[in-house]
Design goal:
- The chain is an all-alpha fold.
- The protein has a single domain, classed as Arp2/3 complex 21 kDa subunit ARPC3, CATH 1.10.1760.
- Helices cover 75% and strands 0% of the residues.
- It is built from seven helices and no strands.
- The longest helix is centred in the middle third of the chain and has 30 residues.
- It is globular and about 50 Å long.
- It starts with a helix and ends in a 10-residue tail after the last helix.
- It comes from Candidatus Uhrbacteria bacterium GW2011_GWC2_41_11.
Length: 177
Amino acid sequence: MMFRTGAALIVFFLLFFLETSLIGFLPEPLRFFPLLLACSVYAIQHVGTPVGFWWLVGEGFAFDFWKIGTVPYETLIGFCTGFVGIIVARHLFSNRSLYGVLGCATICYGVQQALHACFLWILSWRNDLFVSWSAYISFTIWQGILLVILLSICFFFARRIRFFFRHLSLVSTREDF
């Protein structure tokens, strides 16, 4: 149990720092890769481990802690996104098809971006904060496209990824939510 938690934390910090530092310096459309969201949804939906939920909550907490998020309360947004991901993965989509993984990811991404847009609207309304909605929509579209591409690639390497998760003891043979 302790090894599983440690391995999950190491993978989380690796993904988080990769997304916020390395990928953030890529040219315009490529820097929008939602690496941690894609890996979290993939872990929840296809692998069937709840560690993806905790990665989303952890990402929100890290964004709030270092104040690098788009809006305040990123932890709440991560919690809601992960919760919706678990519900959708368990009751709506099969984990055996690419369509199930992409459907779960699309719903999770939609929830995440809807919550971001609500918080941005509230902040712009209350604090006279200027929000470039065209830039936000462009960012959202690019990030959605890159999410679908990344999850399609992950689905192609499904056996290797599942082996990686089992090797790190992130998922057992009988994983329950």
